[in-house]
Specification:
The chain is an all-alpha fold. It is built from one helix and no strands. It is rod-shaped. The protein starts with 20 loop residues before the first helix and ends in an 18-residue tail after the last helix.
Length: 74
């Protein structure tokens, strides 16, 4: 009697996944560092943009609103 095998099943031993606490901590620190750098870059760009925008705009000072201190005679 000849047996014909149509399918072959191969069993592979896979270890149970374990929680890698060090990897989680390092990953979260990396993500926090990227967020901090991104916030610093964006904040610097916005701040520089505001400084440059205010320097280009001429300041308008009305002479009637400008009150100078006069020396006191006491």
């Amino acid at each position: 009697m000849i047996f014909q095998v149509d399918q072959v099943i191969t069993w592979v031993h896979v270890p149970k996944p374990t929680l890698d606490l060090v990897g989680i901590v390092i990953g979260s620190l990396r993500l926090a560092g990227i967020a901090a750098i991104l916030a610093m870059v964006l904040g610097s760009a916005v701040g520089l943009g505001l400084i440059l925008r205010n320097r280009r705009r001429p300041s308008v000072i009305e002479p009637s609103r400008l009150h100078l201190l006069e020396p006191s005679n006491s």
